[in-house]
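Record 1 of the preview.
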Amino acid sequence: ADYCHRKLVYLLNVPPPERPKGKEALKAQLLKESEEDYLVAQERTVGMSCAVCTLSIIRFLTDHLASLPLAVTARILDTYDLLMLLGPLLELKPWQATSEDGEMRRFANGQWVRVPDGETHKLPKCEIQAWLAVHNLVCDPNVRRRYQFNSFRKNVLLRLRGFLHESVVDQIPVLVDLQRSLDEMTLSEAPNAAEGKPAY
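->
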């Protein structure tokens, strides 16, 4: 859980890749790239790969919350409050970037690749993992009993409601339950964030 937290924070702060506009500008950049520039770029790529893979680990952990040691669950929900990191991540989508010429690129299999025009609506694997982790945490009955959805947490999560459009739900059908939970949340009274108590 500690490692996952560090990587999620990294994802929230990683700058989008800089890509020159046009093939000639890209070629010129590559020609003047020094060995040090290359190593820095490789370091960023490795860091991004590790961080994106962390989303799968978090999804796996949230799939098995009931069987996890209490200390791990406490770290996920209280110490690091990973749900409050996953929400902003799904808003920012650091694994996706649009260049100056309008070309969409996504980080997949350890590199930034161009997304074909007909596939921009398809969710990348890492984003699916993030959505499933949020679903697991919000819809789990044990979490709902223990985790206090105070006003701050509620506002963070309700911002995701706007991203749960038909295309997303069609690709991840279980998110219907998340939609329902968020709709219920809009009708419930949330305690003040200052009154929050640890879930574990």
